Amino acid sequence: MKAVTNLQGKDDRAFFVERVDIYNRLVQCYAAKIQKAIPDAYLSDDITKEIINIGFISQAKEIGLLKDTLDKDRFDTLISCVGFYLVNRNDALDAILTNIRDASRKVLQKKEKVRRAPTFVDFFCGAGGLSCGFRQAGFKVVLANDIQDVCCETYRYNHPELPDDTVVQGDIKAIINNLEEYIKQPVDMVVGGPPCQGFSSANQQRIIDDPRNELYKYFVKAVEKICPKLVVMENVRGMLPYANQVVEDYHNIRAQKNGKTYHYLAAYKLLNSENFNVAQTRVRLIYVAIRNDVAEQYSIRPEDIYAEIEKSTEKNRVFNLSAALEGIKPLESPRIKHLTDIDDEKTGKKIDVNQYSGNENAYLRLINSNRDIPFVFNHKARYASPTNFEIFSRLQQGEDGTSASIVGIMPYERRKDIFKDKYYRLIADKPCRTITAHLRMDCLSHIHPTQVRTITPREAARVQSFPDDYLFIGAYLKTYMQIGNAVPVLMAKQIATILKKYI
């Protein structure tokens, strides 16, 4: 995380200011939880030292630059919150601030460096759904990469055990061509979900050769250069007609390591997240590739891995949407535009005191690992126009744009055959329909089952089985993008648990 002197451009500054806001909000929420007021404070040597420990500045003389970078109210709030922290510091407060405080992160990073665990690289890591699941299964991240800066910021924040240079923002092509700069230790697994846009022409040419699938090509190249024991690649089920081409591409790999040449056995299968304790119907194409020596050592094929995975799900529960939405504050839609980034008691806050424990039912205990979560993150309702508000009010659970209840007010009445799914009220007693990145556009396809609004980013994250203390950084709409593109955490965890046995 960058100090104020290292900021480059408006995006860097925006992320920096958001970090300051997160720190302030965390301290304010803690104070509210213990029912203590935060008094005004004045800059002192102790406060300056702590601001260095947080990582906002690297030395005392930068305090002036910090003041210039922040507006007066935000700077004054920071000084008061740091002063409150120094007076009220304890283990609980330290734990709450671990992700945002560099001094605490360095302690975790020192421990993580010597921790012995199977290792993996996550390409196209996004906000970190796959990584979160693999971490929960006991794996260790060696490198995470994504081209989206907002995804990398979210990833860094939620993985305080990783040095900043472990999470690399940039084009995978540049990373692959300089792997020795980024990877300093053996890698057991490569995971990721490269986008493939060139499906339509795949019947005329091999999918790896389509220039629109260049990112997939580099993912395969990364596998060949890293030579991991195992590979997991996730993609949309629209890739299924061309899945055999992908398997062939893995079979054609000839990886060199320690003077030996290796090849891979690969297979694919459609897996549904609702079979993995995830409160969502989400079908994805999952590829598994095994290095030939590992396959021989364990007398295992990819098909055997899938059989193990499916057997491991037999005792899992099918959770409904209601389980994911339990124990979270009811909200109202803002009725005025451009208020999504403004905290409000009725419409929600980016960080708020959790009114519940986060363990109200079996699903929440699973996603939160039986932990009490003191705060709730990203639970902020979205603006609703007068027309949309009326539609939300009329639609019953399971109804869409074709419902007779909205005849006359449906904006797409003449084209409702095309836009029938534009509006949809979710069903509480069934798994949620698929969470997608399209939610960033309007969210109208995911209307709350009982409240007159669409679902919040936090609710979408719960459906994706992210822990309640997983904070999504960035502009409001980009949080939906990050959540929608992620692999459900519990699904990733269960797959990782099976694969771990073969490393």
Architecture overview:
The two termini are 32 Å apart. Helix 7 crosses helix 20. The strands form 3 sheets. A 7-stranded mixed β-sheet has the order 3-2-1-4-5-9-8, sandwiched between helices. By secondary structure, it is of the alpha/beta class. Among the domains are: 101 residues, no CATH class; 219 residues, 3-Layer(aba) Sandwich (Rossmann fold), CATH 3.40.50. The longest helix is centred in the N-terminal third of the chain and has 25 residues. It contains 20 helices and 11 strands. The mean pLDDT is 93.
Q: In oligomeric terms, what are we looking at?
A: single chain
Shape, principal axes of CA atoms:
globular
**Rg:** 24 Å
Number of separate helices = 20
The N- to C-terminal Cα distance equals 32 Å
Quick rundown:
With 503 residues, this protein is α/β, with parallel strands linked by helices. The chain has 20 helices and eleven strands. The chain has helices at residues 9-33, 45-54, 63-69, 72-88, 91-97, 102-114, 129-136, 149-158, 172-176, 179-182, 214-226, 243-251, 292-298, 302-312, 321-325, 362-367, 386-394, 457-463, 476-484, 489-499, and strands spanning 119-123, 140-146, 167-169, 189-192, 230-236, 255-257, 260-262, 264-272, 283-291, 348-353, 375-380.
Blueprint of the fold:
Elements: H1 9-33, H2 45-54, H3 63-69, H4 72-88, H5 91-97, H6 102-114, E1 119-123, H7 129-136, E2 140-146, H8 149-158, E3 167-169, H9 172-176, H10 179-182, E4 189-192, H11 214-226, E5 230-236, H12 243-251, E6 255-257, E7 260-262, E8 264-272, E9 283-291, H13 292-298, H14 302-312, H15 321-325, E10 348-353, H16 362-367, E11 375-380, H17 386-394, H18 457-463, H19 476-484, H20 489-499
Parallel strand pairs: 1-2, 1-4, 2-3, 4-5
Antiparallel strand pairs: 5-9, 6-7, 8-9, 10-11
Helix pairs in contact: 1-4, 2-4, 7-20, 14-20
